Amino acid sequence: MGGLRVLCIAIVLIHSHTIGAFAADGPLRVEAQPLRSASEFLSPALRAEQADPIRNRGMLWVEQGERLFTQPPPGGAPSCATCHARAETSMRGVAARLPAVDAASGQLVNLEGRVNECRIVRQSLPPLDYETDELLALTAYLTALSNGEPLAVSIDGPASAFYAYGQQLWNERQGQLNVACTQCHDQSVGRKLRGDTISSAVPTGYPAYRLEWQTLGSLHRRLRACQLGVRAQLFELGSREYLALELYLKSRARRHPIDAPALRR
Ligand code: HEC
Ligand code: HEC
Questions:
Q1: DSSP letter string over 114-137?
Q2: Same domain for 166 and 255
Q3: Are residues 98 and 172 in the same domain?
Q4: Is 140 in the pocket of ligand 2 (CB under 6 A)?
Q5: Which of 67, 106, 140, 163 has its Cβ near the most Cβ atoms within 10 Å?
Q6: Which domain holds residue 182?
Q7: What is the pLDDT, as a whole number, of residue 2?
Q8: Is the CB of 65 under 6 A from ligand 2?
Q9: Pseudo-torsion of CA 36, 99, 125, 207, nearest 10°?
């Protein structure tokens, strides 16, 4: 079954593309074109659900996130809201600026990392794992507070090396299928793949509710799904590889407004 699926994907890729684009060697062709969000390819029903805060199932996490942010955690630590009052204004735009290089550590830190840093340093609590309901809820809430804000990550100064690494990963062929991100998300946008329409990988809707997962998931979980699809070695959620790719994707889509939580197939 697994082998058959790989073969089917390979056949779809080869047949759905002009000669050379997926050839095993030769330079990758990069086309400059307007980026197309996966939201453009949603069915009308899902698109309507996504746009309706009452029906959007991702909003359950946003509401839980607001509660977690406001209420003091068990054990007497101050709540997030104690230090971050009026989150609607104080946290607006934060998700659009991350990931960013942390001056103290020199590391690239995304929203998940920022939340966990405050848990550890300011609340003396253990960090939350990726894909736990709590971390998804807090990041969904904080990201939704930036809805409409254009992505505005910095790739200057200390961020430039992380950006270059992300760009390298984007262009590198990987996995048994030997396909790079760019071959799908730059060169095959609009084509069908296993029932999906390939988008430009605009990362403005994450964390997003994916029907296949039956839950909300982080951007890093989505990147894992793409690596699985080409039978590649998976990186860890929160790893430097995914952080660099996140920076690259968010820079590539700069000025695209945040629109989370998105709904996906
Ligand atoms: C005791 C005070 C305190 C508590 C409690 C606290 N924070 Fe923070 N938080 C800070 C401070 C101070 C900074 C700025 C740190 C810095 O810039 O290095 C910060 C930074 C942040 C940032 C990054 C803001 C930016 O502009 O980049 C986020 C996101 C954040 N906190 C979320 C949270 C969440 C979520 C919680 C609860 C789980 C929380 N914080 C709890 C004090 C706190
Ligand atoms: C074989 C083709 C293929 C490759 C290679 C691939 N992806 Fe994807 N990717 C998809 C498909 C199909 C989807 C789901 C439909 C869509 O949104 O494009 C997807 C979705 C995504 C999304 C979510 C878009 C959204 O708004 O929901 C991101 C981000 C993404 N890919 C990034 C990457 C990155 C980074 C790489 C390289 C590590 C990569 N992809 C490699 C096919 C691919």
A1: HHHHHHHHHH--PPPPTT-HHHHH
A2: yes
A3: no
A4: no
A5: 140
A6: 2-51+152-264
A7: 44
A8: no
A9: 0
